[in-house]
């Protein structure tokens, strides 16, 4: 999904004012497919650049198998001299193979044999690639338009329903043909085929100073149906990192979570969509396997209804099985038993469709900077469901930015959900200086949906224990540590900050399946302690304002009873103090009830809790009973 850009939203002004709401049935289901196309001209600059491109694809294969094995991935070598068939040659029976192209892997789901086949190929690619595939003669330029036609045909005939299909072309050549040749114009015409098929084309430059002007700037703008001036040169290094690390792409995957109508008032609404800023890492589903052959145990839930006889006995008169949808909920209302079927319950839950309703506006300063009740979402318009939504959305977004306002709404994100109060905060895309950072993947022009906390989300903390004079500091000391914290901040790098437990699990899976180890110390590499020491080195002399910390005197370790030493004596507790309930609460809090005798524990139970325990009760039982009653 491309980010909504109001500056490029010029087609909205052409719509008429009398256009009514249009309901269109759109299908958002399907798989994601990525087709790698590697330019054989990479070997002309040395085998190192070719190996770098192949290593990017290798990392994408391995991480893609961990993220989502349902995605389809393929690999084509372009501008080759020879065209050897792939391992699965029957997959190309209905596809017309052009010259100077070789299919190494048709679009398939990633499996262990496929990844092993690619790893085996990479083992001898340095010496075998030039002999097996070679380079197109005489100038290393094959037909770019025929290569695009091959990619489109493979995507269309992959046998699976696709929702998001991409062609990733890894090259270091700025133009596939001279600008004066007929092949150059034929290649540009293929861009309209990509736009009509809704296939995305991405150039992955293998050099940092790649020039898009000769060919790819015009080709990409034509394939995406955008203006030539709207094209922005991406950062080549970032493109290579995102293409290689499928786990990193999963964090920034902007897949739509839902579509709903935003009601601004009577007879005024627009269609919008929303997605998560970060994707939740899904752990592999736990299964039970048999010990003898490691086969998966499949369970089936069965609901049985039994009817007992009316004579008061426990005998079963009738027994039958029902489906999950055939069950019911029962409750007693007065003297009658009320049955509510699951179908009726679902009808009550589905009284309202997913929607958002405007309540009012507030100044932006009234909203805290951080709200911890629920992660925020991003909202953007959808002009294909209600025509004119982008125009109305843009007007609301611009006015909120100009007046520094936020929108308070009531939001029901999906069916059977509880409506929540939310605040729509207008956000802008990052500046040009930040376009080459990972922040550009997270931010866009639109509204950030901030979920407002409710009473159940606010905790009540007892400040009495720690908010005392010993823990206070003057303004100068607080300002000093604010500077320390500011110096120790690090830039967010999503390729290094991952879920440690999930990374360890995936590393174990790769070690068992493919027999190689991976580096999972990304967070340790990010936090360089020597660099942190240099940052705070200038502030350390000011640390003298704090008094030196007094080290507690070291106590001599007590001898254990196993060495013949006597058990440590317990401090005697006065019986008069046990009559005070606050004193007893202090013993419970400090876990010092064991210092009391059994008679004193019996006295505590009788005097404060009105409970009498047998005289034969041991001290642990008496202590446990007092702690249970105190809770």
From TrEMBL:
| A GO biological-process term | DNA recombination
InterPro entries associated with the record: DNA_bd_Ku70/Ku80, Ku70, Ku70_bridge/pillars_dom_sf, KU70_core_dom, Ku_C, Ku_N, SPOC-like_C_dom_sf, vWFA_dom_sf
Pfam families in the record: Ku, Ku_C, Ku_N
**Compartments reported by the entry:** Nucleus
Gene3D superfamilies xrefs: 1.10.1600.10, 2.40.290.10, Ku70, bridge and pillars, von Willebrand factor, type A domain
In which broad location class does this protein mainly occur, judging by the first location in its UniProt entry? nucleus
Record has Lyase as a keyword: no
GO MF entries: ATP binding; damaged DNA binding; DNA helicase activity; double-stranded DNA binding; hydrolase activity; telomeric DNA binding
> Is the keyword Transmembrane in the record?
no
UniProt entry keywords in alphabetical sequence: ATP-binding, DNA damage, DNA recombination, DNA repair, DNA-binding, Helicase, Hydrolase, Nucleotide-binding, Nucleus
Recorded hits in CDD domains, A to Z, give: KU70 (cd00788), vWA_ku (cd01458)
Domain Ku positions:
319-469
GO CC terms of this entry: Ku70:Ku80 complex
Q: Which family does it belong to?
A: Belongs to the ku70 family.
Q: Which PANTHER family does the record cross-reference, listed alphabetically? A: KU AUTOANTIGEN DNA HELICASE, X-RAY REPAIR CROSS-COMPLEMENTING PROTEIN 6
Description of how the protein assembles with itself and partners: Heterodimer of a 70 kDa and a 80 kDa subunit.
Name listed for the protein in its UniProt record: ATP-dependent DNA helicase 2 subunit 1
Q: What organism is listed for this UniProt entry?
A: Drosophila erecta (Fruit fly)
GN (gene name): Dere\GG18111
